[in-house]
Amino acid sequence: MSQLDLARLQFAMTSIYHFLFVPVTIGLSLLTALLQTAWYRGGRAEYLRLTRFFGTLLVINVAVGVVTGLVQEFQFGMDWSGYARTVGDVFGAPLAMEGLAAFFLESTFLGLWIFGWDKLSKRVHLATIWAVAAGSALSALFIMAANSWMQNPVGYAIDPSTGRPQLNDVWALFTNPVFLRGYVHVVLAALITGSMVMLAVSAWHLRNDLRADDGAGADNGGDDGGGPHTTKHSGAAFRLSARLSLLVLVPALLFAMLVGSELGVTEGKYQPMKIAAAEAQWETCQPCSFSLFQIGGGKNDQTPTQILEIPHLLSLLATNHWNGKVLGLNEVNSQYQQQYGPGDYVPNVFIQYWAMRVMAYLAVLALLVGVWGLWLLRRKRLAHSRWFLNAAVWAVPLPFAINTAGWLLTENGRQPWIVQGLQLTKDGVSSSVSTTEVAISIVAFFLLYAALTVVAAVLMTRHARKGTDPTDQDDQPAHEMTY
User: Fold this and answer.
1) Which H or E run contains 291?
2) pLDDT (tens digit, 9 = 90+) per residue, 131-186?
3) Orientation angle between helical segments 386-394 and 177-216, nearest 10 degrees
4) Which residues does residue 158 pair with via DSSP β-bridges, in sequence order?
5) How would DSSP label each residue in 211-237?
6) Domain locations in the chain as residue ranges
7) What is the DSSP letter of 289?
């Protein structure tokens, strides 16, 4: 593999790994804030226990996420100095805003939330967790502004003395059409991820309650269906968290699908190659059918075998019109060759096509799980449905696979550009780093991330299985409680 291939592989590895933690942080911080708000307003001890329980999962996730984010930032100087040198005057601005504003806001108030339980008033302490949620969402805002500029460069002018882009309109970064829809889509994806994690953990404990009932062979009279004393308290609490997660999950999924569809229309305008590749659409069509499944469709097979297709659906998704026109890969490639010079501007079609379908199909599956849960919740059978509780536990990987597929769709679809229309990816790699050095660093980062995976998995799984503490009371000092 060339240095370019290895550098791309390394950045893909670290970015995908880092983004496993980012949506959990954003989603769980908001859900934890909602739980604490419910405790603040109603005073129910179950909400206090749930706040501490899921807040601990949040803290573990943030700790690992920060480490992986630092490694990702490091790569801009190590592997991509050509990119940093060329577009740093633009790209550096939102990254600086993220570090100086959002990250410090999030980390400062997270510290106040952790250590302020018996030192701050309830109202002020509640404000700290909402500040953490705001900081995590603000951090994503600045990162998405930078990423959206790579997809659709705006707000810059070329310096005639250096030939490099310089930022001349910072507000254009935050009114970029790709950013506006992309940021909302990311926040909704984070809510989906946080909700699915909360639902899976809650379902695991509710399922154990049912097993405890079977083992005991008797009902202890509790409203949650029995079990030992500690299980009773956990069961009553986790029914509340399961309810909250479902009430957030289903609307977030529905809105994410709507916003994602509109984002596809926007990208079809500014990055027609990305949309054409996502459908393996080699020739321009009007109207266009959407293929649910096909065989072939790559560069060596431009006439794939369509297994199942839906007439007009691609036109509707890509243009918002029933008979809309969708440019094919060959036509867009010819346009780019005339505009930018000779070359092959077609991304990896296989990755684009299947990333799109993995994201969409798994989102539908997650929605079905959520709707099933709401139906059981309405019938007051959620905590007693073994089939659903098992399904909810096993469904926890869905949002992570959806998020990964979404990022592959976004970033692979921009290739061979690192900044659409401004800089090719091959021109962004570092000239001072050898192929061997990049390969060694990949191995080092892989081992580091493998160790972090084990640590994070053990910590989060051990805490998630432990359940809430039934002795947790409003007036108990924080230093006596388990975090």
Assistant:
1) strand 290-295
2) 999 988 988 898 899 889 999 999 888 888 888 888 888 898 899 999 999 999 99
3) 130
4) 165
5) HHHHHHTS--S-TT----HHHHHHHHH
6) 3-271+347-470
7) P
